[in-house]
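Action item from last week, closing it out:
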Amino acid sequence: MKHGGHGLKALILSSSIVLFFCQSAVAEVITSLPDPGKNAVALTFDACETKTPSHFDKKVLDYLVKEKIPFTVFITGRFAERNKEDILRLAELGFVELENHSRNHVMHMEALSEKEVLEEISDNVLKGITGKKTKFFRFPAGNYDQKTLELVERKYKVVHWTFPSGDPDKNITAEMLVKSVTSNTRPGDILIFHINGRGYGTAEALPEIVERLRKRGLHFVKLEEIIQP
């Protein structure tokens, strides 16, 4: 009986450890690409609106499309509703990936009820425009708690960024943006910028950033090319 008791305790402990690691494996926020040896970098953008209407930054969008640079845009439902024509155009381009950035860009989804979270992460608006289901989710402002993360990961993989570019800060000039991003970027990084008019130096800085990173042997990819949904 004594040995049986130890065996039962060991089994319970083992099961608890397995359960813990299984939960940990599920609840994961991706901040870099899985294989940096490929010299790949993911160029990602947030497209959202909060209190005021927002549209795509035309200079940023025109540059990316003209140069056919692979990129991923995380779009909120409200932004999608206001920018249907551009989104339909982007959905037809093979080098562009459109993903989910929530419905209303609630800055602290961890304060919502489970029902509210599930409503907020629905991609019905974007899917209704493009006809395509989204695979990845990015929390507004990167804010979440464990419970919210686990709810979201029932439907999506959560992808954030390796380091913030800081482009929503009006005090960060294009020159500062170029210097910061190019000096910090490494193979496998996920870069984040804004394409909703709030990346104040992005349009000016982006061509220089792309050129410098390419000279270092880095190339740009969509998230879905590297990360398995």
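Closing note: Residues 2-26 form the longest helix (25 residues).
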